[in-house]
Amino acid sequence: MTLTEVPSQLNFQPEEPLSQLNGQDAFGEWRLEIWDDRVGATNNNPQLDDWQLTFHLPPDNPPPVVSLSHCVPYVNTLPPNGIQYFVVDVPQWATMATNILGFAEERFTTNPLPVTVLFNQTNFPVLTNLALIGRRTAARV
Predict the structure, then answer these.
(1) SS3 state at 69
(2) Fewer beta carbons within 10 angstroms: which end of the chain, N or C?
(3) Distance (Å, whole) CA 75 – CA 72
(4) How far is the CA of 123 from the CAs of 64, 65, 73, in angstroms?
């Protein structure tokens, strides 16, 4: 029996945990060593066609929270699927408030982009919160 093609979904884990590299710079030379130490292995001419090392980086710190002020417009640029958190200080006597999303356009163009504005009165919004504007699956602002 000869294995000539390995399924693309086949993955191998490192012999030692890579956690010892946490906090280290990933830049540099990475080398892959392969040993066939199976009992009775007779593959005298093995060949590796391709290999890939994928880094899953920890998430960034959440973006800073922007406090909106009465009648002061806020303009910012976000990357695709970017998130920006806003805080609106509302006086206790207020019974309703109006906030206006002036535009959501692709940078340097006038192409409109889908935007979702989520609301949570006490915490950072999550996708299960009320969508004030747009769909929950669209880009979030």
Answers:
(1) coil
(2) N
(3) 10
(4) 14, 12, 23
Q: How far apart are alpha carbons 43 and 46 in whole angstroms?
A: 6
How does DSSP classify residue 41? -
Give the Cα separation of 47 and 141 in Å (integer). 49
CA proximity to 136, closest of 120, 122, 100, 66: 120
Beta bridge partners of 86: 66
Furthest-apart CA atoms within the chain: distance in Å: 82
**Is beta strand 117-119 parallel, antiparallel or unpaired with respect to 130-133?**
antiparallel
The one-letter code for the residue type at 52 is: Q
Q: How far apart are CA 36 and CA 58, in angstroms?
A: 33
Distance, in Å, from the CA atom of 51 to the CA atom of 43, rounded to the nearest integer, reads 19
User: pLDDT tens digits, the chain, 141 residues: what are they?
Assistant: 454 565 666 666 777 887 887 777 777 788 877 776 667 766 667 677 777 777 766 666 666 788 888 888 888 888 777 788 888 888 888 887 777 777 788 878 888 888 888 888 888 888 788 888 877 653 444
